[in-house]
Specification:
Shape: globular
CATH architecture of the largest domain: 2-Layer Sandwich
Number of helices: 17
Radius of gyration: 22 Å
CATH class of the largest domain: Alpha Beta
Mean pLDDT: 96
Number of domains: 4
Largest sheet: 8 strands, antiparallel
Helix content: 25-40%
Strand content: 15-25%
Distance between the termini: 37 Å
Structural class: alpha+beta
Low-confidence stretches: none
Number of strands: 19
Length: 464
């Protein structure tokens, strides 16, 4: 009688990874809670096998085999997620897109670039730059994340205020669904042909299938940009300045406001202590950056903003992706994480106050701060950072769970978005009824049952 591994080997050959180190390395993402468990002495878990197909046809065969054997499947891209979207058990198989990489096609006439789902984000952007183009998607994880992972987690990049989020860039996509079928959306700039099925896969976090190929609508490289910085007496005044810029129709790719604590950490040489720094990058077609910068200066000045040297923005660009790992912090006794939410402009000041106050009230928390990094015409996100020093190692997990719970509770109490761009994974899963409502959760469960009646595709993620 053939075993699961026999069947998988017949399809994958060298694409079936069975070495223990290879399996452990691909068993999880970079969720802080997973690292806490390891620091507390729990052993690393190795899935039964790692499957790394080279194309959608192979992936479909692998999914069909796993379904026949009733084996859980855990899709994985670059493993850069921070919400527990990848956490394999010993009886599961990891479906890796690591061999589905590279530029499949590029049309400079249509500004369309098709990539394998496992293509590293920075590699993809570099390929576009060589042709005088850009994707315009710059998540902090760009050197670790994959194009397919961007879609699966509904990601956002640091230039989103002008260029949009990943859902604004996806032209078409291919995915192997949980039932083993291969879905490919039509290549068209827009369609009025029923619901947009691409949206089911954007943000599905591997619960409905595996994104194997993505076609992105890319753009020409902009002219060199203009960098600006202004500091404000308080966070609410800075938010009002961004709101005014967006309201008038200006779209700076980068518009980031830091509260007093984070501003002092990043920009202490460019502003008084206690003030809040707002930085901008303006770029686009010839002439736009200077025009937009002039308008922004007037709008910020009218709201109490004091101009700072553009070197403040240079400093941010130099260090924007340099952050310590969870392991490095845990070795210092610090339990930390970031929590991003979103709300309309009218609610943002209270949301900031309520979440920071709730985090600071948690025993062991030594720092709670926030910034806004993605703006829209009718609202923006808030991105909180929290750090705690629990009394002992046994309190690490409980402290982490508590500060997440109070942040979600404060956000849900205001009826606003509990997740902006990191996704749901496991850490936010039980707050989905607040986000979608019971009817919405019911719809999501119905779609899951239709495609994956036995619940084999990434169980435990996204769906309460």
């Amino acid at each position: 009688m053939k075993t699961l591994l026999d069947d998988l080997s017949a399809v994958l050959g060298a694409g079936l990874l069975l070495d223990e180190d290879q399996r452990v390395e691909r068993a999880r993402d970079t969720w802080s809670r997973s690292q806490i468990a390891i620091t507390a002495g729990e052993p690393e878990v190795a899935p039964m096998a790692v499957c790394a197909p080279v194309n959608a046809a192979e992936m479909a065969e692998v999914v069909s085999i796993c379904r026949a054997h009733k084996v859980p499947m855990i899709p994985r891209g670059g493993g850069s997620g921070v919400c527990g979207g990848v956490l394999a058990s010993t009886d599961a198989v990891v479906l890796s897109t690591e061999h589905m990489t590279g530029l499949v096609s590029l049309s400079t006439d249509d500004l369309l670039a098709t990539f394998g789902g496992g293509t590293n984000g920075f590699v993809a952007e570099t390929m576009m730059a060589e042709s005088g183009l850009t994707i315009g998607h710059w998540p902090q994880s760009i050197e670790l994340s994959t194009v397919g992972g961007w879609v699966a987690t509904r990601a956002s990049g640091q230039y989103s205020t002008a260029y949009g989020n990943i859902e604004d860039m996806v032209y078409s996509l291919e995915a192997v669904l949980a039932d083993g079928s291969v879905y490919h959306s039509r290549d068209t700039p827009r369609a009025s042909a029923g619901p947009d099925l691409r949206q089911l896969l954007m943000g599905s976090e591997g619960t409905l299938g595996v994104v194997t190929e993505v076609t992105l609508s890319v753009r020409e490289q902009p002219e060199p940009g203009v960098r600006q910085a202004f500091h404000f007496a308080d966070f609410a005044a800075g938010l009002d300045a961004i709101r005014a810029v967006m309201r008038q129709g200006w779209r700076p790719p980068v518009a980031r406001l830091y509260d007093g604590r984070e501003s002092w950490r990043h920009f202490r040489d460019h502003m008084p202590k206690g003030n809040c720094m707002l930085i901008f990058l303006h770029e686009g077609p010839p002439g736009l950056a200077a025009l937009q910068a002039a308008a922004t200066e007037g709008l910020c000045g009218a709201r109490g903003g004091v101009a700072a040297e553009s070197e403040a923005v240079d400093t941010w660009f130099e260090h924007r992706n340099a952050v310590p790992t969870w392991d490095e912090l845990l070795k210092q006794g610090i339990v930390s994480d970031t929590i991003e939410v979103a709300a309309p402009w009218s609610v943002l000041p209270r949301l900031y106050d309520d979440v920071v106050a709730a985090l600071k009230a948690v025993p062991g928390v030594v720092a709670a701060s926030g910034h806004s990094s993605h703006a829209y015409r009718s609202g923006a996100n808030l991105y909180f950072t929290v750090a705690a020093i629990p009394e002992d190692l046994q309190r690490y997990g409980a402290t982490y769970d508590t500060f997440w719970n109070v942040a979600m509770k404060a956000t849900a109490a205001l009826g606003v978005g509990v997740a902006h761009h990191h996704g749901i994974g496991r850490v936010r899963r039980d707050w989905m009824p607040s986000e979608l409502g019971e009817a919405g959760v019911g719809m999501l469960r119905s779609v899951k049952r239709a495609l994956d009646p036995e619940g084999l595709m990434n169980p435990g993620v996204l769906i309460p």
